[in-house]
Design brief:
By secondary structure, the protein is α+β, with helices and mostly antiparallel strands. 36% of the residues lie in helices and 34% in strands. The longest helix has 13 residues, at 2-14.
């Protein structure tokens, strides 16, 4: 009986909501990124949001960059969440924001 309870407890640990959550991707177009230091600052700030797994920032034009965020799917991230994470005094501008399943 004790081993059955141990197995059921173990299964309960494995079958958490996070185990079933699918990754969710977000894409944003940004302005105001001037150097590698800017990219590091942005990645560090956005990386503190719950559920963020990876962040990529690629240059797409003269003053344009594409931000890609992949999360573990346990929490939704809004544009407002990203702006808040960047900080009120930030000169970075999120021009567009979209979510892909």
């Amino acid at each position: 009986m004790k081993s059955l309870l141990t197995i059921l407890a173990f299964i309960g640990l494995i079958l958490t909501p996070q185990a079933f959550a699918a990754e969710v991707s977000y894409t944003a177009n940004m302005k105001g990124i001037e150097c590698a230091g800017c990219k590091k600052t942005i990645a560090r700030s956005l990386g503190k949001i719950k559920g963020v797994k990876t962040i990529r920032i690629n240059k797409t034009g003269e003053d344009r960059h594409q931000l890609s965020i992949v999360t573990d799917g346990t929490a939704e991230i809004t544009r407002a969440d990203a702006v808040e994470a960047l900080g009120k005094d930030s000169h970075y501008e999120i021009v567009t924001w979209s979510k892909a399943g």
